[in-house]
Model the fold of this input.
Amino acid sequence: MHVDMIITSIGQLLTLAGPARARRGDEMNQLGIVTDGALAIEKGKIVAIDSAEAIGKKYTATQMIDASGKVVMPGFVDPHTHVVFMHTREKEFEMRIQGKTYVEISLAGGGIRSSIQSVRDASEDDLYLRAKKHVQRMMACGTTTMESKSGYGLSTRSELKMLRVNRRLQEDLPVDIVSTFLGAHEFPIEYKDNRDEYIRILKEEMMPAVLAENLAEYCDIFTEAHVYTINQSRDLMAHAKNLGFKLRFHADEIEPIGGAELAGELGAVSADHLGACSDAGIVAMRDAGTIATLLPGTIFSLGMPRYARARDMISAGLPVALATDYNPGSCNCDSMSMVITLACLQMRMTPAEAICASTINAAYALERGDKVGSLEVGKQADILVLDAPGYQFIPYHFGSGCIEMVIKNGNIIVN
Ligand code: NIG
Ligand code: FE
Done:
C-alpha cells in the first residue's frame, strides 16, 4: 500500500499509547516505547505503527524519513498560554530581581493592568501579527496544539478582538488553537472601586457576546486573593457554566484560598498553577476528574521558592499536565522542553512523567485526547523528531532544545 509518509528506523519511538483518558499514578511513567519502530502516515493521520521491518514490507511512501538515532514523539500540547498581547514587560522582571513581588507590582499599577491599554489601542491586525510571531516561535519549539486566552482587553470590544485573533491564528497557522475567554483576568482600572459592576458586565454582556460569535470553548478566571475572591469566582463561573462554557481556573497560584476546591465543585476541566493548593484541593480535583495543569516556568520566572506539589498530586492519583503559561508578565517562556526540565528539577517529576504531562495529559486538559497527545492509529500525525539518543535527554539538555523536525497533520512545518 502506498502512503504519504513513512518515518522509519526510529531510534526510540515514544507512542504514549495507553488508556483513552488522562494518565494517573504510575501510568504517567509509561511512555509506550518502541525500538527500531516505524510510522506510516496518510492524509494527516497515523495509519500504522509497527517495527521498521513490518512497515517496510507492507508500505511504500512518497516521503521517507530516516530517524535512526533519534527520538520520535507526539507534538507538545501547551494547555495554558496568553500569547495574544502587544508589549512585553521586562522591566517588571528587573523589579522582581530588585526585590518587589508580583503582587506588589500589580497593586502598584503594573502587572496585568499595564498590559490592557496597548491591547485596547491596537487594531485587530496589529494584535494578530504580534501573536502570530509568538505562536511561530512556539511551533519551532515543538508545540503543535495550544490553548490561547483573552484577558488583556477587559472590555467587551477588546476581549472579542483578542478572541477573533485566536480564530485567525487557528485558520492561518498549522497549529491547533483552543480558545479561552478570560475576561475575569483582573478588574480593569475604571471598575476598581465598582467591582460588582464589572462582574455584571462579564455575566450579562461579555459572556453572551463571546458565545453568540462562538469565539471560545472555555471560560477561565484568575481566582486569587488580590483579584477574584472565591465567592466572586463561584458566582461568575457557575453563571458561565449555565450559559454553556466549559471551565478552567487559575487557582491557588500564590495563596491557598480554595481555588482548587472550587474548580472541583464546579467540575472544571482543568485547574492551573496550584502552587499553594491544599490537600483538600487535591482530593476535590481528583474526585471531580479535574486535571492539574502545573506551570513551573511561572514560579521560576517569579523567583518564588515554592513549586506545586506534583509528587503529592501524582501519588494521590490526580492526573498532572504541564504548560508554559507564556505571557508578557509572569512567564515569558515559549518552550515546553524548558518546562519539562523545570518540572523534573524543581518538582521531582521523572522525565517520563513530565513528557506524559506535556503530551497526552495536556491533550486531555484541552479535551483533545482522542485526537492528539499520543501516536496511535487514527490520531493526527502531530510528531516531533528530536536529535536525542533517549527520552531522558529532553530534560537533561536545556538551552537550544533538540527539536530537529516538527510535523503537523502529516506536513513538515519545521525542519
Ligand atoms: O497565569 N496569573 C494570572 N495570569 C498570568 C499572568 C499574566 C500577566 O502577568 O500578564 C499567569 O501567570
Ligand atoms: Fe495564566
In short: Residues 80, 82, 250, 325, 327 surround fe (iii) ion (ligand 2) (CB under 6 Å).
